[in-house]
Amino acid sequence: MHSDKKTTSNIAKTTQNHSATYVFDIVNKLVSRGFKAYIAGGAVRDMLLENPSRDYDIVTNAPIDIIPDIFKGKTVKKVGKSFLVSIIDGVEVASCRSGAENVQSESEKGHYYTEQQDYSNKSNFMSFPECDFMSFPECDLAHRDFTINSMAFDPLAEKLIDPFGGKNDLIKKIIRFTGDPCKRIEEDPLRMVRACRFVCSIKGGLASSTFRAIMKHKDLLKEHTAFERVRAEIMKAMSHEKPSIFFRTLLDTGMLEIIMPSLHRCVELDGGPHHGETVFEHCMMTGDSLSPRKPLLRLAGYLHDVGKYDAATIKDGELTFAGHEKMAEEVTSDLKKLRFSCREISYIDAVIKTHMRPLKEDTTAKAVRRLLAFLNRHGVKWKTFLQMRIADKSANLAKAPYMPEDIKLRVSKIRQELYRQDNIAFSIKDLAINGNDVMQTLNIKPGKAVGEIMDTLLEKVLENPEINTPQDLKKILMSFKHKD
Fold first, then answer.
1. Where does the record place the Poly A polymerase head domain (predicted)?
2. Distance of alpha carbon 328 from its chain centroid, rounded?
C-alpha cells in the first residue's frame, strides 16, 4: 500500500474500475439532500488491497424513514427487524445508529439475524452504551467487527476515514477486533470464527488482544451461535488460497475441537510408515492442493482421512489404517451439526469412501471398468476421483507426487474405457436388459433376488463388454435357470 494521498487515489480508481458508478450516484444523492454518506466496511478493505469487491456497503446519517423519498423511482426495501438497512437497487445503505441499534450481524451481506435468533440465552448480548458522543461515521465504524473492516471512504472528497488503524493492520496483516475485543465477541460470537477466516484471507495473524479474547470466550460458540452461520464461514474459507490457515487458526484458538471434533482428534495422529507427516498435516496439504472452484471437494480433501483415528491398529508391528475410508460416521455427525444439506453430506461421504480405490500404471482395462462402475455406484465423477487422488498423493511427504505424464496415462486409461465403441456398461441401467426381463425369463417375482441377479450380470459385462446384448444376457439368465 502507498501513502495516504496515493491510497485514496487508488481507492477511487479501483472503485471506478469495478463499475461502481451507481454507488457514487447513491452517495451523491444523499449528499445533495444535506446528509453525509460513505462507502464503508469490507468494500474499503478490498479496495485498499486492490481486490474486486462483490458488493458495496454505504453508511449514511440520513434517517431510514426518508430513504424511500430520496430515491423515488428506485427499488428500495428495508431489511430485517433489528437493523436500519435499506437496499437501493441492490446496494446496502445503512442509516447511522447508536446504542444497540448500531450492531449489524456480519455473517456477510444478505443475512440478518435478530437478537432472539442468535442469542436466546443471554439478554445482554448486543447491548452496550450509547455512542452519541462520537461523530459520524465513527459511531457506526466503532461497532464493526475488525479494524480492517472499520474504515470508510468518501468517494466525492476521495478521503479515507480510518479511526481505528485498519489500514496499518492491513499492511501488517493483523486481524484485530475494533475497540474492546470482549465486547465485539459478546455482540456476536461468530466474529471469533470470522477472525480466523480473515487471517486466512490476508495470510496474516491474530493480534495478541484478539487471540486472548477468543481463548477466553470460545465456549460462547456452543450456545450462542447458529451453526449454519459457522458453516457459511467454512465454505467462504474454501475460496481462499490456503484454507489450511483457517483450520490451523481454529486449532490455535481452541475452536476446532468445538466446530469439527472429527478433524481435531487427528492433530497428533501419526501418519504411519507410508507417510512423512501426521494425519492432520496430510489432510491440510490435500485440501490446499484442490481447486477453490470446487469448495465441497476441497472440504472433502480436508476431511478425507479423519476415519484413520477409528481405523488405527498395530499389525505386525506397524501402524495401519485398513478400511479408514469407510469410517466417516464422525465426519457425518460434524457436518449435520453444521447444518450441511443431505446432498452436500452425501457428496463428501462418497468422495471419502472412494478415495482409496487404486488406479496404477499397470491397471488393466478390466480393472478400470470396475473402477468406473464403483464410482458410478457412489455417484462420484471420474474427474472428481482423479483430482482427489492427485491431491492425496501430493500431500504425502514420504512419496513423490504424480508427474504430468503419470496423470495423462491415467486419464488415457479411463477415456479408453469410457469411449469404447461396444456396449460398455458401468451400472445396471446400462445393461441391455432390465429387471422385467429377468423376472420374465426366470419366472420369478419382484424382490431382492432380481437386484442381485442384475448385479451379477453387470459383473460379467465388466469382465467382457461384448456380451452386453439382450441375446447374450438372456443366455446367461437361462444358465442360471438350468443350474437351479
1. 37-176
2. 19
Q: Rounded CA gap, 369 and 291, in Å?
A: 27
Which CATH fold would you assign to the domain 260-416?
A: Hypothetical protein af1432 (1.10.3210)
Cis peptide bond upstream of 243, omega within 30: no
pLDDT tens digits, one per residue of 410-449: 999 998 888 776 678 888 999 999 999 999 999 899 999 9
Residue 334 contacts by C-beta under 8 Å, 6 or more apart in sequence? 259, 260, 261, 262, 263
DSSP track, 13-34: HHHHHTT-HHHHHHHHHHHHTT
Exposure string for 338-366, b = 16+ CB within 10 A, e = fewer: bebeeebbebbbbbbbbbbbebeeebeee
| Per-residue DSSP letter, 401 | P
CB atoms within 10 A of CB 331: 22
197-217 residue pLDDT tens:
999 999 999 999 999 999 999
Architecture of domain 4-259: 2-Layer Sandwich (3.30)
Euclidean distance between the first and the last CA atom of the chain, given in angstroms as a whole number: 81
Instruction: Please check whether residue 10 is in contact with residue 50, taking contact to mean a CB–CB distance below 8 angstroms.
Output: yes
